[in-house]
Specification:
By secondary structure, the protein is an alpha/beta fold. The chain has five helices and eleven strands. Strands 5-6-7-8-10-9 form a six-stranded mixed beta sheet, with helices on one face. The chain has a five-stranded mixed beta sheet with strand order 4-3-2-1-11. The protein binds fe (ii) ion (FE2) (2 copies). The site of one fe (ii) ion (FE2) has 6 residues, from loops.
């Protein structure tokens, strides 16, 4: 039994959006993802997919992409990415009902892996696009969602946490953020995130050990499309 993570599949079986505009390593990335997953993840393993699953603009346009994920071995837990238009934040329970037994959606809840609670939210960071007011609103909302996830796990008796974000925990000019502080507050063992893809972005946030927590970037191209073992 093992826990893996990888993010930013950016599938487009229905809407056909090529990814090699983001760099030559993205050429044939779906084939690479499938091949490496089949070599790595077993049926008894758990994998967290850290968002940006599909380019589809609604659930219908994402169904083939989600089916591709469903058919991969192992238990699959999905986090929301900024491109996951099929996932209305208010309708996570509906997704969990619809995909019961096939996919699990992590938002305002948590999932157990052995004696760890897997907690998380999409997160957010300043990429220079928002007014200060808008930025504060988006950060606060994600901070609240993350706390709901931690508190749900805590109320269920969990004391060991792995924290997942889609966005990096800090923006490129920050050393810490409300997300890193919350990871420290609850004593998360690891913080796992993606979103930073393309070579120029790999160093945007924290990687390695910082304040006693291990930070891992798991964007699929950074991992050369091989799921990363977390536990
Ligand atoms: Fe992405
Ligand atoms: Fe993203």
């Amino acid at each position: 039994m093992a826990l893996y993570a990888i993010g930013d599949f950016h599938l487009s079986f229905t809407v056909h959006k090529p990814m090699d505009v983001f760099g030559k390593e993205w050429k044939d990335h779906v084939r690479k993802l499938r091949r490496n997953w089949l070599r790595t993840v077993r049926d008894t393993d758990t994998a967290v997919l850290t968002g940006d699953h599909s380019w589809g603009r609604n659930l219908e346009e994402c169904l083939e992409d989600l089916e591709f994920i469903e058919e991969l071995p192992g238990r699959k837990i999905l986090l929301r990415g900024n491109h996951d238009m099929f996932w209305d934040a208010k309708k996570t329970e509906k997704l969990n009902e619809r995909f019961a037994g096939r996919l699990e959606f992590l938002q305002n809840n948590f999932y157990a892996y052995e004696d760890y609670a897997l907690v998380g939210t999409k997160g957010y960071c300043d990429e220079g696009r928002d007014s200060l007011e808008q930025l504060e609103k988006l950060l606060t909302r994600e901070e609240q969602r993350l706390r709901i996830s931690f508190e749900a796990a805590k109320a269920a008796g969990y004391r060991k946490y792995i924290m997942f974000l889609h966005y990096p925990p800090t923006s490129i000019y920050e050393e810490e953020s409300r997300f890193t502080r919350m990871a420290e507050e609850y004593g998360a063992k690891k913080v796992v995130y993606s979103h930073c893809h393309g070579r120029r972005r790999y160093g945007d946030s924290i990687r390695g050990n910082w304040h006693g927590i291990e930070y891992r970037l798991v964007s699929s191209d950074y991992l050369r499309f091989v799921p990363d073992r977390i536990l």
